[in-house]
């Protein structure tokens, strides 16, 4: 049974490992409410360290790890589940991200999740909707990051459309303003590149429409403050202000001369690229003005974390939608889930399945193991694994989806043991979860609410013993044959199954 975040975790934290900056927010929870008590942020520019082969260089890694060592002092003592660490575009892009993530996890003592662009968009909108004054109708939220930009149209606390584009102030700086020179030609190139990116989403955004536009990034905040400093707004970004600011940049000609109100010294180098992207957004979406919200990804992560402990876990809702979309037999899924968790509880200690996510992942896999049947019966476990790994599943990190997909892939026929070991250091435990899922599915091979016998499981390192009531197997020859065949499949991964 889950407990409320206010009861289980009086202190929670979120870390946003962004492409430009790393941010941390520490909050105290009480009666379901949250109060921010600490905010930290450092410019790291991971995205600047990604080379043409999509490798993150050692200098960028070191900047990130040094930053995390400073953050870690505030969160190392917090229990598992009270801290969520998310990586965004730079870590999505870096092919050697696993090397960085292993070191980062050792420093902060919590798991690092790399989230998809659309999941990032969902969390950004959640952060804005909880921290920005409510308004009637739909709202457009834009976040210009270091490596990607997110666009969301939502209403209330629900995001209706989420998009992520491969353009950001750090990556565009590397492409167009690497030496710090600002010319109309270079600015035009950056602007045009942004407009080309926006072409793929602008129709969908406009079709939904919105009543107000809100920006949720340091770039948008800096632009608004610079325009305010010129007396052209109250801190909002306006079309008129963008034009004035662009002309000002051309006149100065170099990033080192950008001594404007609202633009911090460490933001000067990436400011022209951010401005070009923002102007392209204004023109593509025909915006007149955009307000700024202090709430963004990290606040969204905190509110999502609280929701997970108040029976409002977006992941449960996501899986329900997935099951509905692919016409899963929900009664059968519930039977398999119940049996899998019953089996889990019997062997969890023997198999060191002692973390909350072990039980949670098994339950999820039981619910969605048949999604591939809607594609075709032949190899449906492979179809299901593909759908789960490559769909946008709000609330799930990339690693969540990969592990869930692997359990679905391995729930019948051959278990791809090597893939389990390659995916995670917990490959052995994932394999054990897969064995438990297969057991539950075999147990309910005959569909329907028939009376199920009691059973007793005992487990060794590479062994599972299943004991049924005396004489029951003889009276149920199909189940007996199923388990005999299952023992043969498990032998292929050097695993012994005995049934009696």
From TrEMBL:
<dbReference type="GO" id="GO:0004309">
    <property type="term" value="F:exopolyphosphatase activity"/>
</dbReference>
<dbReference type="InterPro" id="IPR043129">
    <property type="entry name" value="ATPase_NBD"/>
</dbReference>
<feature type="domain" description="Ppx/GppA phosphatase C-terminal">
    <location>
        <begin position="314"/>
        <end position="486"/>
    </location>
</feature>
<dbReference type="GO" id="GO:0005886">
    <property type="term" value="C:plasma membrane"/>
</dbReference>
<keyword id="KW-0378">Hydrolase</keyword>
<keyword id="KW-0472">Membrane</keyword>
<dbReference type="Pfam" id="PF21447">
    <property type="entry name" value="Ppx-GppA_III"/>
</dbReference>
<feature type="domain" description="Ppx/GppA phosphatase N-terminal">
    <location>
        <begin position="26"/>
        <end position="309"/>
    </location>
</feature>
<dbReference type="GO" id="GO:0042594">
    <property type="term" value="P:response to starvation"/>
</dbReference>
<dbReference type="InterPro" id="IPR003695">
    <property type="entry name" value="Ppx_GppA_N"/>
</dbReference>
<protein>
    <recommendedName>
        <fullName>Exopolyphosphatase</fullName>
        <ecNumber>3.6.1.11</ecNumber>
    </recommendedName>
</protein>
<dbReference type="InterPro" id="IPR022371">
    <property type="entry name" value="Exopolyphosphatase"/>
</dbReference>
<dbReference type="InterPro" id="IPR050273">
    <property type="entry name" value="GppA/Ppx_hydrolase"/>
</dbReference>
<keyword id="KW-1003">Cell membrane</keyword>
<dbReference type="Pfam" id="PF02541">
    <property type="entry name" value="Ppx-GppA"/>
</dbReference>
<comment type="similarity">
    <text>Belongs to the GppA/Ppx family.</text>
</comment>
<dbReference type="InterPro" id="IPR048950">
    <property type="entry name" value="Ppx_GppA_C"/>
</dbReference>
<dbReference type="InterPro" id="IPR030673">
    <property type="entry name" value="PyroPPase_GppA_Ppx"/>
</dbReference>
<dbReference type="GO" id="GO:0006798">
    <property type="term" value="P:polyphosphate catabolic process"/>
</dbReference>
<comment type="subunit">
    <text>Homodimer.</text>
</comment>
